[in-house]
Structures are given as C-alpha cells and as structure tokens.
Design a protein that fits this description.
heterodimer; A: 5-stranded mixed beta sheet; 5 strands; globular; B: 617 residues; 26% helix
C-alpha cells in the first residue's frame, strides 16, 4: 500500500509516493537524500534523527512520513543561511569542540536550537536536563553544554 | 605566516561537514540498483539448525535472493589475527567461525541466513516467511560454568570449551614468595562484560563490477586495510588488489569496529552472486547482539607482602570469556595486553599470571576501550587498596612504598619501562583532589545523612601495539607498523595519506597541525586522507592509542624524506653544498647567508626539473 505525502522541507516542496509504513526519517534520508539526519537506535532514544516539524524538535524515527503531511520540516541541512552563513548553534558547536565523531551532532544541534527557543538563556542544569533525549557516545557532553550556553547568548 | 600549529587551539577542520549534515557515513552511501540485506539471526543461545525452508519467502514481493549456510559452504571462516601458544606449547584452539551458521547456532544473534530484497521493508517481511527449524541445545553462558564437567561443548575441537590456558611468570618462585609472606591479600572478582555501543551502528555496502571483476566495500570500520587483507586472503580467496575497502566517516568505534565481521563478508560475496550492490545497516538490537563485546573476566588475585606492606609477589588466575567464536584480536586481549600490565607502577619482583580462555554461548568478546590494560589496572589497584585497608596503611603510603623509582625498569612481566615519575603524579593527584580536606568533607556529608568515599588508582598503559618485531614475537599475525605517505604537489600543497583511521579522533586536524608546522606552510595547504584502500597505500588502522605514536611517526619519517630530497634540490639550485642547506620555517637556506628558496619553489622544481640534480636523486 502506498500513499502520496507532501510537505515542505527546508523551504522546498517535497512530494513522494511511499509505503504507508515509511518512517519520516526514511523519507528524509532515502527519498530526499538528506542524509545529515541519522538513525542511531531505531527506538527514539538517541536523538540522532531529531529535526524540526512545524517549529518543534521531533524524533523523525518515531513518526510516519504520513504524519508529517502538509508540515513544515527543517533538517540540519536547512539551518544555515542561503549564503552559507552558519546558524549560531552550528558555529557554537564548532567553536567549543562540541563534537567528535559527528554522528549525534545534527540531532544535538536541532534539539539545542529548540531548547534555546523554549528556554532562552538556559542554565547549565536546564541544558543538561533538556538534552536527556540526545545521546553522545563519545561522551562529549561537557563541550556540548558549553556550546549551547554560548549560542543561547547570541540567539 | 604563522606556521607553528603545534600546541595551538586549532579549530577542527572536519567539523564543518559534521555540523552541516554533510558527513558521509556508510549508511549514507546509496549505490544505483542497490538491494537491501536483512540477516535472520538465531533467537537461541545454542541450537542445531535442522532445516531452513525459504520457498515461501522467495516468492514474497521484492525478494532478490536468500542465502543460508548451504550457499556459503565454500567460504572460509573468519580468522583470528593473534596466535596464543598455551602452557604446553600447543597453539590455541581456533574453531571455525562461519559467515552464515553451518548446522549450528552458537549465540543469540548468530547469523543464520540473509534475505536480499528491493527494499529493507520487503527483506524484513520475507524474513518472517523463512522457516528455520531449530533443535534447542543446552547452553553455557557464564564464564564460571564453561569448563565445569557436563557443560555443553560449543565446538568439536574444544570439547572442554577451552581455547587456551596461557601463563606468564615464574610460578615456582612466586609460590615460594607467598609461602614466606607476612601478609597475603586475596580477592575474587568479576570484570563484567560490556557492550561497546558506538552510536553509528555497524554498516556495510558492497558492489561488484563485471567490467574489472572488482569489488568495492563501504564499511563502518576502524581498520579498512586489515579488513581487506583478512577478507580477501583468508575468507573469500579474492585477489586483494581487486577489492577496495572504504571506511568513510565512522561514528565511533571503541574497538568494536576493528574487526572483520561476517556481515561484511556476506554482502561482498553476495554482491557478485546477484551482480547488484548489497546494503546492510545494523539495527541497535543487532549492535547489542553482534558487535564484539568487551571484558568478561573472572579473576582470583593475590598479593604477598612483608610486614611493612612491601610487595613480594603477585599471583593472578583469570578466566576470560571469548564468547562463541574467536573475534579478530580476541585472543591477545586477556593475555598479551593484560598480564604484561600487572606490575602497574610497582616494584613487585615476582608476578605469575595464568589465563584460561573459554568459549561460551555468548557474543564474541574482543578489544574494547583500553582492552586488557584497564582490566589489569583493576586487578592491581583493587589488590593494593584492599591490602592497604587490611594492613591499616594509608592508601598513598602503601603505593609510595612500592613505586618504581629507578629507570629503566624491567618488570617481571616482559615490559621494560623507560621513564616515569609516579611519586610526582600521585602527589599532584592528591593536591588536585584535596585529599587533605577529605576528612572534613566526609564529616559534612555525614551531617547531611550522605555517604562519601575516596578511591585511588595509579594507572599505567602500554599503547601503540607496535613495533612489528615485538608484536610478531608475541604471536601477532599482523604487521602492526603504520604507513604514512606525504605527497607534495607542484605548488607546494600537501596531501598526507595515513594508514591510521579517524572515527572521532580528529586526525584531519591534529596530523595537519604537525605536518604544516614541520614544513612551515599554512595548515590550509595540508589535507589528511585516510580510510580508503584505493588511496592509502596500506594501514593498520586506529586502536590501542596508536594513531599519533605509530601513524604520526610514519608521517614524520616521510616528512624527513621530503625535506632530505628538498635539500638536495635546493643545494643544486643555490650552488651550495648540501650539508650547508638548512630547512627552517618553510625555507631552504644556505647557512650563514641570505640565499634561500621557499618550500613551494623547491616543490615546483621537482615537477619541472629543467635544472635538477638528477645524479643525486
């Protein structure tokens, strides 16, 4: 059984005929070939697949593509400006060595942007608590927290 | 031109692609016409496979092929890369490690069949239609039970589930020292099994080309060249030069991606069978069941001391769980990388260590973070700490009393320490940890109804897993050197090819810092290439903290050769004696004069050799 899904991804229309059971992350990675969104656990624990849907951070491995019908999605590929200027959160991760192997990074950045939107100028404690849905197996949390704190001052 | 980057906080050059989603991990690779593989795995720890019926599944939508052990009989098993010789001079037992189970499954997750289909969902659907008839056998999973009488045997060649009994040290002398000791501390403990859990699951995508009878395998690996060598020469019998292995961006390894895995072999082999690319990516549950695990030791350790707490001898008996099969480096972890570290930072004059490696119905065990060495430190420091308490000695005092202070120091467990200052490091740690104020903090905690403790550990680690001659004498079947190639382009830009592999370490930055500084050129002029057997001449990969020690040294030696050649060319161009030409800050200069040539100028001359010292090169 297939179904036609249509949504806006990083400001561009995206439409495809997919199986009903297609996960949103599969649609993003396989149909749109936006491979910056990663799958680390298949079970909505690691947060590597985090994207923004209608302005909120969501785990795209835990949604069907159909559930995003008509939605506005933003992935890691869509947060820098068109001229290539990085998002302040991207800059902060680079500045503060907030990544090592880089696999969790897109999800971390997408979560962090939402975190700062909901909690402007968050305390370190808030950042750590709010990041509990994103895992970094390189255990680079300390610098991730620093990066988010620094970015929050600029957002 | 600031060109000394060593010690500078250079921003990581690899980060741009990772923060923009432009990294290329194995699962990001999509090849035209690719099929998707799904492995059917044993749900039983130990079972005889009576039959596999795949006729229904073969008719399912999108199915391209289904392979079982019947189809892969001609493929050799996965080899072990380190030979351990037992106490009787016999080689360890190396049971077959089939890429798809041959008649028996020996751990939960053992791969029994593989379904290839147009989509992953179709492969999974079809897998549910494959009927595997298992006869469940009694299993043994606990390291303590593996050698008990009546324990079910996993492999015909090891009826007592014993891979080897290995020992290091003078047992008679150690026993004698124990007999005369004033105090003996004895401990029995488990160093528990753990799962590496890199956040990027293992993945492998292979393609075959009829045009040149060649293969390309993209794989999440720490070790692409060794993976290729083992797979071609030992398992598939393919010409090594016809197989390209690419380990692109890799999302962490922690040891678990050093090894050659069955799935890597199966997708490579299958890509020729169906003449289409085959893609496989592990689910997290597969990572738990099939990525090589770490540790899993059961140990009895004893420390003999005189009345003042001076160490006289140590005796360690460890049973190490290998799991169901020998993984690539499994055998050397609880032996060569373990027993040799039992001296720790202490002058214990006599040490005996006996290690019994056993097979159980569990996921294979191999190197994980530190691999063997943390296990050794755990043994030593638990013993020392317990001894201090038993003898009512201050934990730092008992350590100081036994520290090695004269160097070089030959330990009784093969290693020689060239240098160290353990008194200084302990002193600094006591200061940083404010040990003097500990009693006060403990009282404060007690007033709040909380507990507070303090622990000591003095760690030493042998890193690098090299050089070749030493590794070879200890049973390594791999070379364990490292390769480095420094290619200077006509314009003086530099590409460095290293056999080390980065999966989070940041080599593209750190190695470039060293190379740019050494050549005196901007870091932007240096690129580091790794992880592709078609680009890098050879490599031993990254593990055991060997990248800068061994890989970095190879690069430095290559740089020396470039500079030596540059000096010859510069001397010729400046009509000076080669001995008078110095290379410093990016210039070849005739000593004591202002005659000099820039690095890029010499590079260009090497490629445009109109005026060139051919006779000297």
């Amino acid at each position: 059984m297939t179904v036609r899904v249509s949504m806006t991804v990083n400001g561009k229309p995206a439409t495809a005929e997919v199986e009903e059971r297609t996960l949103l992350v599969e649609f993003i990675r396989n149909n749109l070939r936006l491979t910056g969104t990663h799958v680390g656990c298949d079970t909505a624990q690691c947060g590597a697949c985090t994207i923004h849907m209608n302005g909120r951070a969501v785990k795209s491995c835990n949604l069907l593509a159909m559930q995003a019908e008509g939605a506005q999605l933003v992935t890691i590929e869509g947060i820098a400006k068109a001229d290539g200027t990085l998002h302040p959160m991207q800059e902060a991760f680079r500045e503060h060595h907030g990544l090592q192997c880089g696999f969790c990074t897109p999800g971390m950045i997408m979560s962090a942007i939402d975190l700062v939107k909901v909690h402007p100028n968050p305390s370190e404690e808030t950042i750590r608590a709010e990041l509990d849905g994103n895992l970094c197996r390189c255990t680079g949390y300390h610098n991730i927290v620093k990066a988010i704190k620094a970015a929050s001052a600029k957002l | 031109m600031a060109t000394n980057y060593i010690g500078q906080a250079v921003k990581r050059r690899e980060d741009y692609r990772f923060i923009t989603g432009a990294g290329q991990y194995t699962d990001d690779v999509a090849l035209p016409g690719q099929t998707h593989a799904y492995f059917i795995r044993s749900p039983h720890a130990h079972a005889r496979i009576k039959s596999i019926r795949k006729d229904k599944a073969l008719k399912a939508p999108g199915v391209v092929a289904i392979f079982t052990g019947e189809d892969t009989k001609a493929i050799n098993g996965l080899p072990c890369g380190w030979l351990i010789t037992d106490v009787n001079g016999q080689p360890m037992k190396e049971p077959p490690h089939p890429v798809l189970a041959q008649g028996k499954a020996r751990h939960v997750g053992d791969q029994v069949a593989v379904v290839l289909a147009e989509s992953l969902a179709q492969a999974k659907d079809a897998a549910e239609l494959v009927e595997v008839d298992y006869e469940v056998l009694p299993s043994v999973v606990d390291v303590a039970d593996a050698r008990k009488s009546g324990a079910p045997a996993l492999h015909e060649i090891a009826p007592d589930n014993t891979c080897y009994v290995w020992a290091l040290g003078d047992k008679a002398a150690v026993d004698k020292a124990f007999a005369g000791a004033a105090h003996v501390t004895t401990l029995e403990f488990v160093n528990n099994r753990l799962i590496p859990n890199a956040i990027e699951p293992r993945a492998a995508t292979a393609s075959y080309s009829r045009a040149d009878d060649g293969y390309t395998l993209y794989v999440a690996s720490q070790n692409p060249h060794v993976e290729r060598l083992l797979m071609t020469a030992f398992v598939l019998g393919l010409p090594e030069h016809k197989v390209r292995v690419v380990a692109p961006d890799v999302g962490g390894g922690f040891g678990s991606k050093i090894y050659l895995y069955a799935e890597d072999v199966v997708v490579t082999w299958a890509s020729k069978q169906i003449n289409r690319p085959v893609k496989w990516t592990a689910e997290r549950s597969e990572s738990f069941m099939t990525d090589a695990h770490g540790r899993d030791h059961l140990t009895k350790a004893e420390l003999a001391m005189d009345k003042d707490g001076k160490f006289l001898a140590m005796r360690v008996h460890t049973t190490a769980n290998m799991g169901a099969y020998l993984s690539t480096f499994a055998s050397c972890i609880p032996t060569i990388l373990y027993a040799t570290l039992l001296a720790g930072q202490y002058t214990t004059p006599l040490i005996y260590c006996q290690v019994t490696a056993v097979f159980t119905n569990t996921t294979p065990v191999d190197a994980y973070r530190g691999a063997g060495r943390p296990e050794a430190t755990y043994v030593v420091e638990r013993l020392v700490e317990t001894a201090a308490r038993e003898m009512k000695l201050d934990p730092s005092a008992i350590r100081r009393r036994n520290f090695i202070t004269q160097f070089p120091y030959q330990t009784p467990v093969a290693l020689q320490y060239d240098i160290g200052n353990y008194e200084a490091t302990l002193g600094e740690a006591l200061k940083l940890g404010d040990v003097a104020g500990y009693a006060g903090r403990k009282r404060e905690s007690e007033l709040k109804g909380k507990l507070r403790g303090i622990g000591y550990a003095c760690y030493i680690e042998a890193c690098g897993i090299a050089p070749s001659a030493v590794a070879g004498s200890l049973g390594a079947r791999a070379g364990l050197f490292e390769a480095g190639e420094v290619r200077v382009h006509p314009t003086g830009k530099v590409t460095v090819f290293t056999g080390s592999h980065a999966h989070g370490q940041g080599h593209e930055t750190t190695f470039a810092q060293v190379v740019a500084s050494r050549f005196g050129i901007p870091i932007e002029d240096v690129d580091i290439v790794h992880g592709d057997t078609a680009k890098v001449l050879f490599g031993m990969g990254t593990y055991g903290s060997r990248s800068i020690a061994v890989g970095g040294t190879a690069i430095m030696k290559a740089i020396d050769k470039v500079v030596a050649k540059g000096r010859k060319i510069a001397a010729h161009l400046m009509e000076a004696a080669e001995a008078d030409v110095e290379f410093r800050d990016g210039f070849f200069q005739v000593a004591g004069t202002d005659k000099k040539k820039a690095f890029a100028e010499i590079a260009l001359t090497a490629y445009v050799p109109h005026n060139f010292p051919h006779d000297k090169l």
